[in-house]
Amino acid sequence: RKFAKVQERQRLAGNVFGSQPDLLVTMESTVSSSWHNLHSSYGSATLRTWQQLGTDVAASDLVLPVFVSDRDDDIEPIGMLPGIYRYGVNQLGRFLDPLIELGLRSVLVFGVDSDTTKKDAEGTNALNPNGAAPRAIKYLRTRYQQLTVIADVCMCPYTSHGHCGFIDRDGSILNQQSCEYIAEIAAFYAQCGAQVVAPSDMMDGRIQTIKDKLISVGLGSKVAVMSYSAKFASSLYGPFRDAAHSAPAKGDRSCYQLPPGSRKLAMRASQRDYEQGADIIMVKPASFYLDIISAISATSLVPVAAYQVSGEYCMIYHAAEAGVFTLRAGVMESLVAMKRAGAGILITYYTPQILSWLSIQDARP
Fold it and tell me: Which of 29, 61, 232, 258 has the fewest CB atoms nearer than 10 Å to its CB?
């Protein structure tokens, strides 16, 4: 009977993520009251803008990833990401004030533990109230009233083994335990002031667990969930892992991130996360996965975000340095392609440059 209700709801909704029989959700666990919580999807001006997809690249589309060091006064260059830095909390204002003036609307916060001795197998430092991420979230919410603060939620920056969840003795992921702890981290960041939590761990069922946890702490209708739903086991993450000190100590993440060639798994993951209450669906990386962005956005009832990852940033940067094209031409064409494919939210390290280019364009008579 419950399965019949799932099928009927999918039929009435137009089978949100496609009409193919093999994409029907059959798991009873996807039926949740979280699916009906709409307020969290438009709780701020930025979130309301993201619900209204346009075609031109605008400042409101952009999300700037920010690496926050636990050393408060740091401005530390990241070797594999030219022009990108880790900032201590005391330096965030210096970095972001000019960008706010140019129209920056949203940031994605990544906390970085510079001291590896703080890491352990359980990732306990993720819940440290004096950690880089929670302090940065509080600082940003206090200093910038109109800025939408998104908190990346994962265990890998805080675990000694570098994986995104708890691991068993044989190295396999303990999925349910990981979901529960990731939900604790998400609720903690939400209580610190994050308007959006973005779980990047790729555990099965973590959106449901997070939504339930947010409801239990009274934030279910106030905090949105941006799910890294179609996150592929890509070769393009190397510079990021250097920046966040989050590379796996042993093995890789191919058993929980998606295989690059699998379109159907991406569709299933996105549908599942939507059914469990995700307010925004993300595709990561972006440039190599425009077909996935297009397929999801064609039928999605929630906004789709595209993450132009560190490897994509470096490819464009070094091609521009070599004279293949101008930086502006390469960056803007890549973003137009993502918008054309259906992404309404663009997460990119080029946000500062794009804001500058857009301001010059807007200033023309």
Answer: 29
Binding site, residues? 241, 253, 310, 349
Token reading at 84: 């990108």
**What per-residue confidence (pLDDT) applies to 17?**
47
164 occurs within a structural domain:
yes
Which residues define the annotated binding site for 5-aminolevulinate? 241, 253, 310, 349
**Number of Cβ atoms within 10 Å of the Cβ of 79:** 10
Q: Is the dihedral of CA 93, 99, 101, 103 positive or negative?
A: negative
- Kindly state the average pLDDT of the residues 273-301: 97
Neighbour tally for 20: CB within 10 Å: 10
CA–CA distance, 107 with 66 (Å, rounded to integer): 7
The pLDDT tens digits for 234-254 are: 989 877 555 545 445 444 556
Residue with tokens 């699916």: 35
CB 200 within 8 A of CB 154: yes
> In 3-state terms, what secondary structure has residue 90?
helix
Residue 365 confidence (pLDDT) above 90: no
Residue pLDDT, tens place only, 76-108: 999 889 999 999 999 999 999 999 999 999 999
On whether residue 22 sits in a domain, the answer given is no
Residue type, 256: Y
Give residue 209's identity as a one-letter amino acid code. T
Q: What DSSP character marks residue 195?
A: S
Q: Which structural domain range is residue 61 located in? A: 39-363
Question: What's the CATH code of the domain at 175?
Answer: 3.20.20.70
Which of 183, 322, 152, 107 has its CA nearest to residue 246? 152
Domain assignment present for residue 89? The answer is yes
The helices-and-strands tally (H runs, E runs) of the chain is 12, 10
**Residue 214 in domain:** yes
- Split into its structural domains, the chain has a count of 1
Q: What is the pLDDT of residues 141-168, one digit of tens each?
A: 999 999 999 999 999 889 887 778 888 8
Active site residue 231: yes
Amino acid letter at 91?
A: Q
